[in-house]
Amino acid sequence: MTNQAEPLLVIDIGGTTVKYGVWADDQLRQKDRFDTPASWPELLAKLTTVKDSFALPFAGVAVSLPGGVDTVVGKISGTSAVDYLNDFPIKATLRTAFGVPVTIQNDANCAALAESWRGNAKDVTDTLFLIVGTGVGGAVTRNGELITGQDHFAGEFGYMVMTPANETLSQLGSPVRMAQRYQRLRELPTAMTAEDVFDLANNGDTLAQQCVGDLLNWLSLGAYNLYVGLNPQRLLIGGGISARPGFVADLQRRIQHLMHQQRAALTADVRPCLFLNDANLIGAVRQFYLEMGE
């Protein structure tokens, strides 16, 4: 058992960005980020440098990362947004590199842990989480407990096949993919961000409006299917896009419209994650404390 008064290094490894910070005095501090490196040796070297730069007596390291995470064995199975993290004892490797206890948990599960612990799901027991970023992840809580499934794959909603062409929700509902699609259709030489496309849509760009509308339609369809399949008390939306004004409200309207069309006697309670981009980091802290018996 560790002392909660001692600081933790908290890391969130994503397909595009690695975020990190220090959990101390019951708060997340000194947050920063860097681009996700192209290989595991580069990432490990960067994380080691980050840890050493703080010069703090860390009680441990709490890591959020993509994929089917086995928190006990300490490995990631299947595929993920960062393929080189898969199928090796990553937890033990990090423990050796850092010299302190290490915990790992799926990124969407971390968001669920954070929101159920201190966020917008702390007052309900049955919740779905849809985490929208480079891909689409998710999580499920039932009776207040995180559901992971026998293969640690529960909540990987991005793998849902949405079209006869086998396109998945991660392909169709990712803001990153939406921006890439806009850039390709416009034949632009420089990369676009989702924020760029949303701004263009607001300024009357018809192609941008179509791309944003398609994104929202696919996400609302996926969320509707989850609602009628699992009947949660609440659906929380995470990822950076959830902070955009009006995004979650628009998504809720579309989901409710689908319910009305299909005569599903349900009400969509859709909210953003309270912790927004910090949800994965705070949830990693919760996972650490749970594993340490605190």
Automatic annotation (TrEMBL):
InterPro entries membership: ATPase_NBD, ROK
Pfam families: ROK (PF00480)
Xref: PANTHER family: ROK (REPRESSOR, ORF, KINASE) FAMILY, SUGAR KINASE
Protein family according to the UniProt entry: Belongs to the ROK (NagC/XylR) family.
Full protein name: ROK family protein
